[in-house]
Protein 1
Amino acid sequence: MLTIQNYVRAESLEQAYELNQKKSARIIGGMLWLKMTHIRVQNAIDLSGLGLDTIEETPDMYRIGCMTTLRSLELHPGLNAFTHGAIRESVCHIVGVQFRNLATVGGSIYGRYGFSDVLTIFQALNASVELFAAGIIPLEEYAKMAPDRDILIRILVPKTTVNSTYLSVRKTKTDFPVLTCAAAQTPKDFTLSIGARPGRAVVIREPHFGSAGTFSEEDVRAFANDVSQNITTGSNMRAQAAYRTHLAEVLTRRSLLTLKGGSL
Amino acid sequence: MLKSVNQPIRKKDAMALVTGKPVYMDDLGIFDHALIVKALRSPHAHAMIESIDTKVASRIPGIEAIFTYEDVPNERFTLAGQTYPELSPYDRLIMDRHIRCVGDPVALVAGTDEKAIDRALKAIKVKYEILPALLDFHDAIGSDILIHPEDNWKALDFIGADNKTNRCASETTSDGDVEAVLADCDIVIDHVYHTKANQQTMMETFRTGCYMDTYGRLNIVSSTQIVYHVRRIISHALGIPKSRIRVQKPRIGGGFGAKQSAVCEVYPAFVTYKTGKPCKMIYSRVESQIISSPRHEMEVHVRLGAMKNGRIRAMDIYTLSNTGAYGEHGPTTVGLSGHKSIPLYTTNLEAWRFAYDVVYTNVMSAGAYRGYGATQGIFAVESAVNELAARIGMDPTLIREMNMVREGQVMSAYYNEMNTSCALDRCMERAKEMIGWNEKPLRRVMPDGKIRSLGVAMAMQGSGISGVDVGSATIKIDDDGGYNLLIAAADMGTGCDTILAQIAAEVLECPVDQIAVHGADTDTSPYDSGSYASSTTYITGKATEIAAQKLKVQMTAEAAKMLSCQPEDLDFDGKCFTAADGQTLTIKDLATRSMCGFDGALETTISHSSPVSPPPYMVGIAEIELDPETGEVYPLDYVAVVDCGTPINPNLARTQTIGGLLQGIGMALYEEIQYSDKGRLYNNSFMQYKIPSRVDLGHIRVDFESSYEPSGPFGAKSIGEIVIDTPSPALAHAIYNATGLWFRELPITAEKIAMGLMEKEKNAQNAAQQLQ
Amino acid sequence: MNLTINVQVNGCKIEESIAPDLLLIDFLRAHGCLSVKRGCETSNCGLCTVFLNDTPVLSCSVLAARANGCRIITLEGLQEEAAELGGFIADQGAEQCGFCNPGMIMNTIALLRENPDPTEDEIREYLAGNLCRCSGYEGQLIGIKNLIQWRKERQTHA
């Protein structure tokens, strides 16, 4: 059972950051993962009162506060128009509405979980994270860092993407994914993010598949094959590595063909 | 013209349930200040406790008592809820020095504060001698590792049980020379089918509260299907007379057989017995997943002999069943894998043999789960029949029509029972019509590359355990001329309280609302084996029917006395007795007058048992959409047509059917059981054991083709269990029709399908290369 | 260290000193909201659904401390709506064991407040996190659709 000695509703990010420097402190996001742990927390720090649960649109980016729920992402008209529904598709399989009303984007990203749909999609969208101490760094880089005691404030999504798509395979529709695949095009670049390998999502870029370029179905097949041969997959209770490797090919190909507007 | 029976009326408890009234064990308020009991559980699959130190733990404030194996009686018993003498061996102690599976209880901690209990559980120091574990049930017989070497292990009724060879049961039965007939057949389908130890996952976990009452008797309030068996089990476990125990069940949040074993009752009962204080034990979902009473894992080897024209002549079945660490329901579930699969093909069957071994291993004990062995056997036999149809290129429904059991046949593999009521042929006809069998090809490739396909299966079950189950009903008239119906059958959501009231109301010619139902309580309900084995409607329902008839005779006789006439001169319309001379007596008046200067009793109790167990029958047809690249299967449509005799309440019968089918679909496609090499179950939560959610399927459609069972109440048979039997073979068949691959192990996951298709393609390429 | 919270539960104000790790489900059950059920420890079953400032959430996954200043509604506070919807479920015989009903009915009420005329797929998707092992979901779906139809007809007549 999780035990908490003190609950602190942070009054400022500075205060939260100070408190969080102790090893026994935890920032609480949606609480969904934390609740299942058996750790003893000295100070549980709640960022709920800091107005970080909003999605702001600026001329060149979306600024998503860390306490924004997955349900808010799912329902946000701007983000979903911008991603052609890929954001919605990436989160709508996660357990249920009541769960997604609690789960926060900050918690999902900070955890850098292997199974994370959220990490998968935002990596494909070339997002960055805004950290209290370390400032702004690319999500792709952040995903590789070991968890530290900095505070993730926002996810920043540049409006450079012109088209994106999200696919996943699950044993049941609301289960963790067996493999996730997000794909996004800018005019001159293409970003593929493959997660639940079961390791955390990795990014592959291929300028050839930018939205301004032309590519054939054969190119796509060759690339998908290449991707599946080159990414590392592993086995866990949801699937064996070989199946994930196979799915990486299928989902990569389908993503690209969807973006191309072709058939599956 | 039936007024109450065969009517789709609301369940009596429906509005209380939908509005969230506090009606379950932990809502009643009785246990709000009771001690909380939790168990320290073994992390090892096989071990001997060398020492336990509870000193530090017991000094934690809020801890009331800690018990270990040193404190419990040394008489073995079984947790299986079965009629005495139970066929399940007496192989348990409340706690044992010998640990036989991960999760076995090592200590019981009782305290006032959950946090203190959790600290105490951590503070108990246990030294284990870790023993090699027997985790693969194929290795059990002849293994050096003995699960139950103890000398006080006891089987009350030997069916080949032998603890010195890890055998919980073993038997061979047959009729005719099966080898000779198989040798004479054109085709023998010979395969092994494997099903896993699926979990019932009722939404309310196991839970029990206990207290000592005014008379010093141990009172148990438990979420159970079997109040009387629990009373006996606790009596055995504690070594106290049954007369000192009372067991009641409130509303219970689902059972499906899980609560046909006393999974958690003995622990809090022991704590209250020792401390004299009220206590409660609420199992976590993890406990309900890892140390409960799931389906028996079985491997069913089928040899099915047939002619090229589809005539099925011989069936030889060997089942290996894994009962796990203890033998609950081990010797009994296995029988159904043959006796409720082979008889489906009685028509042309010349010989059959059915043999089995049930073995102990170091995994969680199995128990009773809806279908109870029939599910496993029917997956095997129905798959084998589908394989036969594919082999000879025959329509799988026509091969069944040629061979299926018919009304009036004697079923030699079903204990020579006569098939007194059977509409299986009509079920098949109707199911084909509903799905459009004759219009749709077995396999269609859709424009997006996905494949739609069909699969079919039949099933039978029983209606109670013949010559064993006892169902009882007490009916008495109340002051206002309504009735009280007292039962010990357990409504676990199934609606039996309402169904039994419908039967009584039909006989007594009154509205169902006038029958108040109470149960189950060992102090006030008449003896009933409990709600399991598809027995309640058929057995307890018949008892209710007879009791109501008898009460009506009693009432008529008393009314005749009061009106000074002969009983046969009275007319009764459900409200009022009218004599030939026009005098009347309402039942309200009768009831009132029976409370003053009256020396009869307007009350009757009937116990009923049946020498036969008439099978319900059904046909299920699945239509799936399969993605040949990812292997994902989406059940688009599942149609099922059931012959349960007369459906007493068509709404409840339909919901039973749909619910059971969806459980079967989960079992077939993704409900997975995975153990670590140390015997730890990974699928220990709803996060890791995935049951179907409502987005995992298209639609399920149900219809009834009713036969009339003369021995049942108003022609009824059973429905509770049969409904889980068809999805596994029907879906395996649909997947074969989509992919050309037979999957003989459950669950048939997307991964297995995709990898199977890849291998098939590779083999085809290799073959083509070799040809070149 | 205990802390004091002020919450409104089904319209009643409660001020109480609580442990910082107390979960909302346990707080609510201790205050007589026994319709709120626990079915798992992994936030998967939906049995404990309540409204937190009108939003359906899993009360097993919310710290009571975090609910400070919030309005909480459980099925105890929605008896009329529960009976109205529940009647349609009951007419299908789909309430069955009933243990999942409060959470499912809460979430259905939330759905219909957000979207009074959902499609079949929208109903299923919204309720995907409400597990039920008895009913096979079909009768619940039909019951909800019948309620929606009935409400439409009532509106037309009015």
Note: The interface with chain A takes residues 114-115, 118, 448-449, 629-630, 632, 670, 672, 674, 682-683, 687-688, 690, 692-693, 695-696, 749-751, 754-755, 758 of chain B (CB under 8 Å).
Protein 2
Amino acid sequence: MDTLLQHLLNGIILGGTYALLGIGLTLIFGIMNVVNFAHGEFYTLGAFAAYFFLALLGVNFYVGVAAAIVAGVLIGALCERFVLRPLQGENIDTVMLVMIGVWIFMQNTELLIWGGIPQSIPHPFSPRPLIVGPLHVNSIRIFVFVVAFCLIGASHLAIQRTKLGKAMRATFQDREAAALMGVNIHRIHTVTFAFGSGLAAAAGALLGPIFLVYPSMGDLAALKAFSVVIMGGLGNFMGATFGGLMLGVAESLGAGYISSGYKDGIGFIMIIFVLLFRPAGLFGRAQRIG
Amino acid sequence: MLAAALVGVPVWLTNQYLVHLLILAGLFTILAVSLNLLLGYTGQLSLGHAAFFGIGAYTSALLDVHLGLSFWVGLPAAAVAAGLSGLLIGRLAFKLRGAYFVLVTISFAEVVRLVSLNWMELTQGPLGLPGIRPPSIRLGTMASIPFHGKGAYYWLVLALAALSYGIASRVVRSRIGRAFVALRENEALAESVGVDAFRTLVLATVLAAAMAGAAGSCYAHYVSFVGPEVFLFSYTITMVIMVIAGGKGTLLGPVAGAVIFTAVPEVLREAQQFQMTVYGAILILLVIFMPRGIVPYLKERRAGAP
Amino acid sequence: MKHGKRISLAGMLLGLLALVALAGPGAVAVAQEPIKIGVIQPLSGPVAASGNFVANGARIGADWVNERGGVLGRKIQLVIEDNKSDPKEAVTAAEKLIVRDKVPAIIGAWGSSMTLAAMPVVAKHGVPLLVETSSSIKITKQGNPWVFRISPPSEMEAAGLEKVLAQDLKIMNTDFLAVNTDWGRGAVGAFGDVLKKYGGKLHAVEYLDQAATDMYAQLTKIKNSPADWIMVTTDVGQIALILKQAAELGIKKKILTTGGSSAPNKLITLAGPAAEASYHIVIFLPWFPEAMPDAALAKRFVDEWNKRGLPFEGLTESFRGHDAVFTLAKAIEIAGKAEPTAIRDALKKVTWTGLNGPIKFDHEGQSWPSIYMIQIREGKITLPPFMRRS
């Protein structure tokens, strides 16, 4: 029973990190309809930025993480302006291809700058586990879990309640109408992409200190993010969050009770089953945006 | 003229390294043409295509290594095995559309990769299957000459590439091909005039999968080593690049894409550690300047359109 | 097209050279040509760090050979190609090196899958391949006469340390956590066999994906097993994560890592106190060059590596590049010419002491490297007492 609880706890915390990965992509893929294969690279960018500020410059932990998020937002904005905007109106596959190019470019640039050796990011949390009965959990993971949910909540509010959020939703639901109403389409595109990339960078900056930082860290993360987003229903924040938790728990239990070699496969098998029974994702029927 | 030169390659091109590249380009042509049927003509983004390639490669490899069956059995077996898996995944995945379909194809490919990695008894897992024998030609009942040197492989791959191009060309111009395009443009409308979307899409998948499987079989016997790396997502990405950058939905697009994107990484070897960074930059620029792909861009230029 | 031009240019040059050669012993100009040696390594992708370590070690080897006047009066020039961790690329790289660069020998290709894919190519063209890192036992069992290896397969690693495991560390009950590659699986098999031989027992055997970062599931299972040791086979990044996560889960077992990829001082940086008291199998001791068979050479190598500003953790892998280059250089000397078949035959006669230890190839082309072990104590690398006896 204890083991089951530990596996569940592991899964929930892991799932929280997956949810964090998913919310940024839900904006970009779910709302902007960009198949962003470079999403994992913004995750990596956030981690390396955090490494730069925290390990190399020795800045305060919270400031460093914030700086890393800003880096993600800025680079995301640049990417949208110079790579995506020229392709506005093009086929979804064309945009997907250019993002593949960005993926390859960013990852290999990172390899050139930082080398392939994994790095660690210092953090102020104790490495010793918190022990609650038979369960062990690490304090930084709890911190990340809490922050992840705060970010998810804040983003949800931003999209639903603010003027900017409304403009975003309007633009992606009906571009022409939004333009006619005076919404600056270009700016909205840039802001949305930057927002989503910033969230990915946040995930990287928060998870970097728990795991390690290396140029190919984004590949698996991106794949999981796509799974989470689609399972949760495109553009659905709550769906992506729930999907992330489900994926984390399924992987944990699967690896714990079935086979660790197939751990990642469990997630994919689950996805196949979910989509077969609920073709529009877990919450697909719900409102498409937000 | 070009055809004669192509067929005569093993005769006049003595640089074995270049012949090797042409063989690789030929294999990728088959893969790109097959993916184009799905991606370009039916408009369905299947990102699990490496799975069919890998299933074909493993089928052929296992038949040789465990049962001693030659390539000439392995090739059709690979096509059939891949085609059957195309049938399976098609029937499952085409209950969905759009992003959901894409995700199921990715998931399927990943599951297949993990099976190949973990099912040690069957595939030897990460240790892979080395020592796959080359194909051989039987002379009478006694002698058989194994493929020696690249010439024979080249002709084999050239023949298969030409065959797959021919099949694709036929299909595209046929009624089925028109059904593909109709589904791509407007599925509801197509259904309303009698196109059975489900069956047509599954058919496209089976055909594409079988072709990819055949390419896999050739690959296995040419490289003589097969490991779970054939299922890597990066293979699918390479095929996707070739199809879209070449010009999806055209017949020559995937061929151009396969040749160009086999050549580009080789030329970039000169750039040493900057190779892949430059490759990424080239891809970005290519898409921005030729959003529809290289072949459509060239066609437009030739037609004089801006 | 560029290639087309190169072919005809090369053709003309070859024609000229043929004329010159036929004309008489005017071959002096040709003799000053450097001897090219091919190197195939993963220079991009997830294991790029390792590939670059080996390549840099090879560069030091080549530079040192050239400092002493080269081989047969000619300098060694390394032609280094990226195999992108893809077997098909290893094949292409081998073809390019042999056909375009005309190298008489190749060092490569780090990962076993890449090496296995390149082996038929070198056999077809008749060029020796010196394997420096790959650990799959299949490499020397294919009956390929062109393949020679200086790195140990897992079986050799395990056999070399049987006494240490049984008598010094007294590992009787252990779990195993390995990366799901040929290397990891090979290690589980090899060490499992050795354990069985002296009466030890394997309990929980778990695998992790090459890209995995969260090992809680596997570690929770390991926590529940009665074994008191955990053996780990994977690279330094994942080892660090395993150590940290094991500590987070409150696991108190003793840890031994195999395979020589633990880069222990990087591990201390990455895992901190979680690395305390862990043992690590290594193939080179850059912290204790005096304990290596050729202490002076080892010290020189470590100093040169540091002088070039290269990361210290790379020393646990880069020595392979150096040893491979020197081995080939010696073979070429023995052969008297930079010709593939002659080099292959000469390799069978090579015997010298490299950075790792004595190098001499058996009938299967396998050399028998020395295996070492270190322990991390109080944040420092130490040589356990049982390692100190000669």
Note: Chain A touches chain B through 46 residues (CB under 8 Å).
